[in-house]
């Protein structure tokens, strides 16, 4: 029996298998999911981890025990699950631990239309009801059925209707799937496009024998960067384990900031929807809201995290949103995130003209950024207070606390955010140039780590 208090996070379920998350727990969560949401049918998909199929099957047993039918989509990426939830108008559950190590697994849940389920929108109730069922062992009347449905082709065809790739020039593309679900989805989505594809680690393997499927960590991009240079590729793409995030490498083998990709895609979406709202979280580059405004759009700043992005998209009617973590959200994809759809936008932009990717992106990258730097801090609030005191009273300095502590000054800003699950403070800093950014970064870290 898993520890529900430990594995239920703010936005999903995640824990070590089987110590924290096992089939008994998944079955109880399946029953609780149906009871809390009132779902008559649920669509389920899973990634390539050895435990994912059995956990999905256990969830289905729990759901059918409460009279719900289950549409089992089998292997899929998380955005394939969102496609299933949106196109079938069904609540859905994806079994994956995304980029986390092999010993982990988890669940991402949504209501019909890919609407998120988070801590304040049903996840806590599902956790509490599942805990009751685990204690009582209460059964259900049954009656639900399980049917299998292959949705990969429909997913690929739908994405291709959202981005016009018909006129792009031939491109050399290297994709690193990290032994994750990109190895399953990329061949079908890219089929028939004028792309010379070089595949890295497309074999599905939940033990991740080559490197972690987490492209936000620079070490996990080394093989892709080398391959781009070795084959003379126009672009490299790296997907995480459940393939809902996509990281971009340019033709020089250089890593591209997700803020630059956010700005590029935002400009493309504003060309289709003049004056539309674009979401960006508060640690994306300041170039994003600047470029959005310059192209006639309305930038909307949010907290970090997909539940906040999706809530703001629903509230504002925004057509697109981007995060520093390489999550990209599209109104015409049920406001859900899709790394594959972002990749298609970049390919369309690159293939629609003759300039190399690095040259295109100079229009979208304006500042020097630190990237996210973690510091282990027992007293997070105390450290943040010391930082605020250090910068208080300086000319032109302002503070806000939308998400952690953001401090802005002439030509620079930084944000300190506490981790929800670990004794960490996360620093992101940006300035007009590398020298100024390094000075601000180092000053903040010295105070945090003192």
Provide structural commentary.
This protein is of the alpha/beta class and 450 residues long. It contains 15 helices and 22 strands. It has helices at residues 4-7, 23-37, 52-65, 78-88, 119-136, 152-162, 182-190, 222-231, 258-272, 287-294, 306-316, 339-351, 357-361, 380-391, 434-448, and strands at 13-16, 41-46, 69-75, 92-95, 104-111, 115-116, 146-148, 171-176, 195-200, 235-239, 246-249, 277-281, 298-302, 320-322, 328-330, 336-337, 368-369, 373-376, 398-400, 405-409, 412-418, 424-431. Strands 1, 2, 3, 4, 5, 6 and 7 form a seven-stranded mixed β-sheet that branches. Strands 17, 18, 19, 20, 21 and 22 form a six-stranded antiparallel β-sheet that branches. Strands 13-12-14-15-16 form a five-stranded mixed β-sheet, with helices on both faces. A hairpin with a 2-residue loop joins strand 20 (405-409) and strand 21 (412-418). Helix 6 (152-162) crosses helix 7 (182-190), helix 9 (258-272) runs parallel beside helix 10 and helix 9 packs across helix 12 (339-351). The two termini are 42 Å apart. The mean pLDDT is 95.
Low-confidence runs (pLDDT<50, min 5 residues)?
none
**Silhouette:** globular
Structural class: alpha/beta
Radius of gyration: 22 Å
Tally of alpha and pi helices: 15
Q: State the end-to-end CA separation.
A: 42 Å
As a percent range, the share of helical residues equals: 25-40%
Residue-averaged pLDDT: 95
Write down how many β-strands occur, each being a DSSP E stretch of 2 or more residues.
22
Most strands sheet: 7 strands, mixed
Beta-strand level of the residues, as a percent range? 15-25%
